[in-house]
């Protein structure tokens, strides 16, 4: 299922936050969005999810504008895992995942054994079956994060939008979660901070900078030393493996010369 943004803009606080973005996400691809803090990744993902209407431009799903779809229609096809998704409800882990079935339930389609199975499978996928009866407020940040993913999988969407899905996870669960998501028959758009995760898991990467998409392509096309310096202001070495994949190694900034001489003066003075 293809998701398309055409000249989509969004403003807040009198400032243009998403600036005329054109983006077409291909069926079943894993598209990463990278960019500095505040560059507009979360805002763009909210627009793609249809939870915030664009100021101008159109977001469409299979050629049908989201603005003309009901929330329920959208939720049957698009699942969103937000960065700071929290719940204050006193619910169990299983009940949190059951919420993913809401868009599929109705007077003519009440909760059934099939829904129970889907929820059990989603819990199993993220390795949280043993936590199913635990109360939400007793769970760690990483456990909650995995349940948010399980809730999104239980929603059985065609498109999964993830805003920094690995930010609470240890490295084992970061890799496991991205691998799990990548293995699903889903179109995925994920805002990622870790450039090496983007290099390993994404089919394509979009780079956001000050509200615009400034580059879009395969990981090796996008993750160049020049671009990492230009967009993030960080010196890096990009290594290429024989299989065509790339790996980013960051370099420690060189201390400024005047700082070195100040330090030396302080040492001299101390002696
Ligand atoms: N409702 C709002 N009102 C005012 N400014 C907003 C609003 N929402 C977002 N912004 C601003 O828009 C800019 C982009 O925010 P956004 O959260 O989309 O960036 P991001 O790339 O996801 O950042 P991060 O990497 O820090 O999560 C930021 O400067 C933010 O302060």
UniProtKB/TrEMBL annotation:
SUPFAM superfamilies attached to this UniProt entry: P-loop containing nucleoside triphosphate hydrolases (SSF52540)
Annotated signal peptide: none
InterPro entries in the record: AAA+_ATPase, ABC_transporter-like_ATP-bd, P-loop_NTPase
Family the UniProt entry places it in: Belongs to the ABC transporter superfamily.
PANTHER family: HEMIN IMPORT ATP-BINDING PROTEIN HMUV (PTHR42794)
Protein's job: Part of the ABC transporter complex HmuTUV involved in hemin import. Responsible for energy coupling to the transport system.
Protein name per its UniProtKB record: ABC transporter ATP-binding protein
Organism: Ensifer oleiphilus
Lineage of origin: Bacteria, Pseudomonadati, Pseudomonadota, Alphaproteobacteria, Hyphomicrobiales
